[in-house]
Amino acid sequence: MQDNRELLIISISVTVLMLLLCSFIVFFVLRYRQRQNEFENEKRMIRLEYEREGNKALLEMSDQTMKAISQEIHDNVGQTLSLAKLQVNTLTTENQEEHKKFSNELLTRAIQDLRDIGRLLSGNFVLENGLEKSIRRELDMIEASGKIKCDFISDINGHKFEEEHEVILFRCAQESLNNILKYAKASQISLQLIASNGRLVMSIADNGIGFDVENAVKGLGIRNVQNRAAILGGTCHLKSSPGHGCKVLFDLPLQHAVSKIEN
Amino acid sequence: MNTFLLLVYLVGSVVALLSWYKLTTPFRLAALFIVVTFLFDLMARYIRFEFHYNMWVYHIYNLLLIPIFYFIFRLMLNLKGWRTWLEVVFFSLFTWAILNSLFFQSIWEMPSYVVIPFNLMVIFCSLLVLRKMLDEPIQIHLLKQSQFWFCTAVLLYQSCSFFYWTIYNFLGGESSMLLLKLNLAMCILYYTTLTYSVWLNKKENMTANAR
């Protein structure tokens, strides 16, 4: 009788224990599946948001580039060719030599302008020669005009940029330099490219007329540059005030933008 | 049923040894545990057959089991906050196992006073691992994850073992036939599932390496 009672208690206890354990496992499996879905949804949302931001930035960049090209064609190439056409139309036997020479000069300038637009669009030079060399060439070209003195300090500690990131960074520098040429009326430009503590800092400073950052940001296409910096996971800050020049500061995480080449 | 258990040990040991180099560290320890269990079981049976008293084998086996499980859970949990806690608890358990063998349950008795706290510890640790899995889910079906099977096996067996040894102690060192059979069945299920988790871990690693 006692044995039967013991057996009954044990059987009931074992059954309850097994039921509890099995229920726990089933619950865990279901909960895990739910967590997997939640986690996947979160990841998808973040990816979508990132893609949306990236696409927006790319669209804005492409729009800015188009505007720059159309402006360049309209202001320079269009004007030069119109003038050349005028010279050809007003060609007479008396002014033939003079007009021919002038038209020739205008056409040469138009060709040069088109080459400049081509250079603006193509990233081949950057890919072939690297960021440092491309920036140095850009500064050399500015210095060749004889109006602006350029300083370039580079200390990137053997870091090599990923190709497309190199082009984007170069475009940032190019855009900033173009802004200086167009608006700053500067006599000196100083460009620094420094990699340290896991970050890459590029600063471009001029001694020009400066401007009120709050009011002038949009007009200078700085958003375009900021978007490019954001694509590289970094930031772009402007420091300027009227009469005190301007400083553009790019701060990018190295692990995102570059890979280190072991010497 | 006993023969079947031995067969499960044998298959488990073969799978563990064959997979050894393709396993992650915690599962190497799980594989080691299967092999050690097989060897100790054989030893215990032989000693019982030859000298009748074999309980001292289980005292040594317990002393080996505690560090093995400590390292398995330390590697699986890999959480700074829990590391010290695990160290303290497993070290205390190890000390208790030695003290128990020396002063409480002599080497001629089953060390059930050690097995019960060990069961509780391992159950708690496997619940922690399951919790960690829930916090950091991965996009692989749960039933294809070696860690899940390992934790499930540990949770099921150790709970039943805890139940068994509590009744064993309650009955003053006696055990009913039903409980013995149940324990044996759970043993078979436990080592089969452990073997499966080791094999699954090997497969996971091979797939990861192929990628």
Describe this structure in a few short sentences:
The complex is a heterodimer of chains A (263) and B (211). Chain A has 263 residues and is α+β, with helices and mostly antiparallel strands.
**CA-based shape of chain B:** globular
DSSP strand count of chain B: 0
Q: How many helices of chain A does DSSP assign? A: 7
Number of discrete helical segments of chain B: 7
Strand content of chain A: 15-25%
Average pLDDT level of chain A: 80
Based on CA atoms alone, the radius of gyration of chain B comes out at 17 Å
Chart the SSEs and their pairings:
The complex is a heterodimer of chains A (263) and B (211).
Chain A lengths: L1 H88 L6 H26 L2 H21 L4 E7 L3 E3 L1 H22 L3 E9 L2 E8 L6 H4 L5 H10 L3 E6 L5 E8 H4 E3 L3
Parallel strand pairs in A: 1-3
Antiparallel strand pairs in A: 2-7, 3-4, 4-6, 5-6
Chain B lengths: L1 H18 L5 H27 L3 H23 L2 H25 L7 H24 L10 H25 L6 H34 L1
Helix pairs in contact in B: 1-2, 1-7, 2-3, 2-7, 3-4, 3-5, 4-5, 5-6, 6-7
Comma- or semicolon-separated keywords:
A: 263 residues, alpha+beta, 5-stranded mixed sheet, 67% helix, elongated, disordered C terminus, B: mainly alpha, globular
Mind explaining what this structure looks like?
- The complex is a heterodimer of chains A (263) and B (211).
- Chain A has 263 residues and is of the alpha+beta class.
- Chain A has 7 helices and 7 strands.
- Chain A has a 5-stranded mixed beta sheet with strand order 1-3-4-6-5.
- In chain A, a hairpin with a 2-residue loop joins strand 3 (188-196) and strand 4.
- The model of chain A is unreliable at 257-263 (pLDDT under 50).
- Chain B has 211 residues and is mostly helical.
- Helix content of chain B is 83%, strand content 0%.
- Chain B is built from 7 helices and no strands.
- Chain B is globular.
- Chains A and B meet through helix 1 of A and helix 5, helix 6 and helix 7 of B.
